[in-house]
Specification:
Helix content: 25-40%
Number of strands: 13
CATH topology of the largest domain: D-Maltodextrin-Binding Protein, domain 2
Distance between the termini: 32 Å
Shape: globular
Largest sheet: 6 strands, mixed
Order of helices and strands: HEEEHEHEHEEEEHEHEHEEHHHHHH
Structural class: alpha/beta
Low-confidence stretches: none
Number of helices: 13
Radius of gyration: 20 Å
Number of domains: 2
CATH class of the largest domain: Alpha Beta
CATH architecture of the largest domain: 3-Layer(aba) Sandwich
CATH superfamily of the largest domain: Periplasmic binding protein-like II
Strand content: 15-25%
Mean pLDDT: 94
């Protein structure tokens, strides 16, 4: 079939699967896509094609995501998917370097007193199995209703068909903003799962897996080194040998990963580091105002790490 990177470069754009309209992750507004997952796709496209604009975003329902990847309707999935063994076995995918750590939470109306919980969940996600385990272990009387789209699940919750709504925490924070009176709804503090999210590619597309893993690693290591969009120019001529090797990969690394010599600097100029991506989409500079929790670099007590750039 030939190398996937050559095929993408010949085509002139990356086809990236994304979720259907999630605040902070993948939103389409005024003809433009934005969000955490969108920025991750832009980072990958920049390494492959030299720019972030050469992407076709393909919105997909949760149940369709991995089928679309398997059938080559998309090159990569940047659709906030949880890494799990079942998906690896069923769809023959490789997950990329972990990029977002989260866990599923339950939202309910403030002051909800109903003894039986009826939970809206998304069809094709990991939520149903996690809920079943949580309810069984805690002896909670509950009913799970699956919906094909986020709009359907959210409408079922807001109209009272369901008195609870369950999603990964960052997703749920975005869904709450779409309710008519967000302040009347609370996200319960207990997590029912602990999950790591990552882009996904087909197992046979190993060159794309390498370059996508490199993109996520650059985002993380740049923050670890204190290099961001605003101060990149200050580090370009750094006497620090490791910083120099990070920003200027060796000829062997560039050849082995099929990237240009200025690829790292171009990515950071275009997208920024991990903190830039998180804060503008999910954190302090976003409407969601979400804490980073485990999504700190390792030296600050978080779970984010990167291979050494040597």
């Amino acid at each position: 079939m030939g190398d996937i990177l050559n095929a993408i470069r010949k085509r002139g754009y990356l086809r990236s699967g994304v979720s259907l309209g999630l605040a902070g992750l993948s939103e389409y507004r005024d003809g433009q896509w934005s969000g955490f997952d969108i920025d991750v796709a832009k980072a990958v496209a920049t390494l492959i094609l030299g720019g972030a604009s050469q992407i076709e975003f393909v919105p997909l329902a949760s149940e369709r995501r991995f089928d679309a990847l398997k059938s080559r309707d998309i090159d990569i999935g940047t659709f906030n998917s949880s890494i799990n063994i079942g998906r690896i076995a069923k769809y023959g995918v490789h997950f990329v370097h972990p990029i977002l750590f989260d866990g599923e939470l339950i939202m309910q109306p403030r002051g909800e007193r109903t003894s039986t919980m009826t939970v809206a969940a998304l069809q094709g996600s990991t939520t149903e199995e996690n809920l079943k385990r949580h309810f069984t272990e805690n002896r909670i009387n509950a009913l799970i209703k699956n919906y094909k789209t986020f709009d359907e699940a959210r409408d079922a919750y807001e109209t009272g068909t369901c008195n609870a709504y369950c999603l990964d925490g960052y997703l749920l924070a975005g869904e709450r903003l779409k309710l008519s009176v967000p302040s009347e709804h609370i996200m319960r503090p207990e997590r029912i799962s602990l999950e790591a999210m990552s882009p996904a590619v087909r197992a046979e597309d190993i060159s794309l897996w390498r370059i996508a893993s490199l993109a996520t690693s650059i985002l993380i290591e740049a923050e670890n080194l204190g290099i961001d969009q605003d101060n990149l120019h200050e580090h370009v001529g750094s006497p620090n040998l490791y910083v120099h090797s990070f920003l200027n990969p060796s000829a062997d690394i560039c050849k082995g990963l099929n990237i240009g010599k200025d690829a790292v600097k171009r990515l950071l100029t275009t997208v920024g580091n991990y903190a830039d991506v998180f804060e503008r989409n999910l954190g302090a500079r976003s409407a969601l105002q979400q804490p980073r929790r485990e999504n700190q670099v390792r030296k600050h007590g978080g779970l984010l790490f990167s291979p050494l750039f040597i």
